[in-house]
Amino acid sequence: MGKGRFSGTWSRRRLLSAAGLGVMGTALAPFLPRSVAQAATQPKRLVLVTNGQGTDMTRWRPTGTTTDFTLSYALSPLVAYQDRMLILDGIDNEAAIRGPGTGHFGQGTMWTGVEVPVGTVRPDEMLGWPTAASIDAIIGARVGRETKFPAYYWGTWPIATDGDNQGPNGICHYRGSEDPINPQLNPATAFDSLFDGVMGDDPAAGDKLRAERRSVIDLVNGELGRVRTQMPAVDRERFDAHLDSLRELEERISQVTAICEVPTRPDDFTQDQIRNYDQVHVFTRLQFELMRHALLCDLTRVACFDWPHSEGYGNYMPEEGYRAFGSIHTVAHTMSYETPELMPTDEERAIAREDMANLQQWRSTMIATELLDKLPADVLDNTLLVWASEMSEGGTHSNRNVPIVMVQGAAFGAFTAGRYLRWGEYDPIDNAFDFTGGVPMNKLLVSLCQAMGLDDVDAVGDATISTGALEELT
């Protein structure tokens, strides 16, 4: 086992954890030496959550105006975070629309911004792997240099390169050209790779951390006092206001509890258990727990989680308080096909759409209760969560108007949150495949890169689709 989390010298990384100054550090930064100012800023974190096969857009879309809206049934479990949310209605997965691989193959385009090319990965579809890195790899390479993993990937079966019906229609993360990333499906294996050599904190860690943070405050106070004696009298009034803010910070130090904790190692599961679709709910909870602790312990700053397509029979749903579904794949999935024997009745279609909405509401519940609610405040405040699917309607397989939900931490500061933004006049029933004024997802990818500090990024993926950020977000 390695050293304790806070043992050793005062590295910049250690100062980041110990200082916990957040927004206050930004306000004080003009008066501090560069090294101290940098140490007073919490790192930003990005969480990407992906599910396949879209949802029922009629039960996903909020009602109301840009700033005065009511969350839909599918998103209602996130209501506590509404003032931190950006709901994006009208983002087109343009790379999928342009390329030969549409529908499910939008998984390979959504975070890369490039088409799924013709190839032999899926011989039945004559499609290959995308030829670009996804934004998680791009961002992780830049912001993850001080962490154990530039990015880390969790998922539930059948999200895997070797799964049935997988390939570029199931894998959405890529290290580079034709280099897909398999999410880790086994929680025990994920634990071993993440926390090897991380001891966490002893029972006295809270007191130890508070003492270390006081040491940082003492250091800052000393620097401020030295600077004050050297500045003109005209600047001292504003400077003294910063000192008052610093004193308030000192009073709050005793309440800080966000320290690295190593969770209990999950049980070992057999391959058959891991590859059991009816255990999606069990593995979702285990993987979200590992993700929370990985972010808290600064093992990664880019965390990705993938749910599979809406396949199988949903036998876990009654345990979660919903009715079991058995029709999403066999009925709703076939709504996009014209073969007469595959076409469902109107009644079957209505049941399938309701099942899709129930599944999406359950996913909202998991994100709220198993991830956001349990993240320490100072970690959550500096985190941006983005949840998306490769298509909009699970039945039509349309890659237009894909559902995207963003939750921005209070101190993240990149976007103007608490808004429902809509582009175009997309109707999931009558014009599911028509261009109706949406904007390309490539612009959102640029915005996410810039939000994570990659200000020099002006294009992600295919620059002929678009360049520049999605300006309406700010």
Summed up:
Helices cover 34% and strands 12% of the residues. It has helices at residues 12-19, 22-28, 34-39, 57-60, 94-98, 107-110, 135-143, 187-195, 205-230, 233-252, 271-274, 280-296, 346-372, 377-380, 441-451, and strands at residues 45-51, 63-64, 69-70, 85-92, 118-122, 152-155, 174-176, 179-180, 302-307, 383-389, 402-408, 419-422, 439-440. Mean pLDDT is 83; it is low at 1-28, 31-40 and 252-257.
Give structural notes.
This protein is of the alpha/beta class and 474 residues long. It folds into two domains: 99 residues, no CATH class; 361 residues, Alkaline Phosphatase, subunit A, CATH 3.40.720. Helices cover 34% and strands 12% of the residues. The protein has 15 helices and 13 strands. Strands 1, 4, 6, 9, 10, 11, 12 and 13 form an eight-stranded mixed sheet that branches. It has a two-stranded antiparallel ribbon with strand order 2-3. A hairpin with a 2-residue loop joins strand 7 and strand 8. Helix 12 runs parallel beside helix 13. The longest helix has 27 residues. The N terminus is likely disordered.
